[in-house]
Fold this sequence. Notes:
By secondary structure, this protein is an all-alpha fold. It has 8 helices and no strands. It has helices at residues 3-6, 20-39, 46-68, 73-100, 113-122, 130-135, 138-170, 173-222. The protein is rod-shaped, with a radius of gyration of 34 Å.
Amino acid sequence: MSVMDEKSIYKKVANYKELHVYQKAEVLVLLTDVFCRRFLPAYGDRTVDQMNQAARSGKQNIVEGSEAAMTSTETEVKLVNVGRASFQELREDYEDYLKRQHLQLWTQNHPRYDRMLQFCRNENHWDAYSQLAENLQAEAFCNMALTLCHITDKMLDSYLRHLEKTFREQGGIKERMHAVRTGYRQQQDNRLQFLEQENRQLKAEIVQLKAQLAQMARKLQQQGQPL
């Protein structure tokens, strides 16, 4: 396989829809839509738009960051950071709702905390949440959404550290372009060296064949045979 086949200026990226952090972000968008419909006023409350926009921004920036990743790690990092900030804003809105309604924020001492945490860790798709979203009371609903916000935040933090490590090891597109170009030139140099060596071998073989022909001609002359 040639160097050009092995290396590319474009970074290999995963399908964002297969990323667990994207799947949880998608769940948060749908959960927030249901939450606003069930527990907030239909009109006159700016929180509805703010929460829906924050959830959507978090998800969309993961998508845009993933799409930008092929050519720009810097752009990917910036977009993922924006997405993370959007989910942090969403988390604040859910916490504020609990405070305003005098509802409890579940901690490790709450009897339902561990089960809720395990559920949110394991489940990445809307099908697992849809029925709960329509039946949970406001306190449980908010704590489920908050748990997902915290998990998503930690996943995005880990993802950003991974991007930093990858950038240190592989560089950005300029470094990859240089590596590909250098690899191509090295390939051409190696090919040229091979052809030059092959040419020298052929010349040596021609010299050897000429010597053998001359020797055969001398033998024929000594034997008095016509050439």
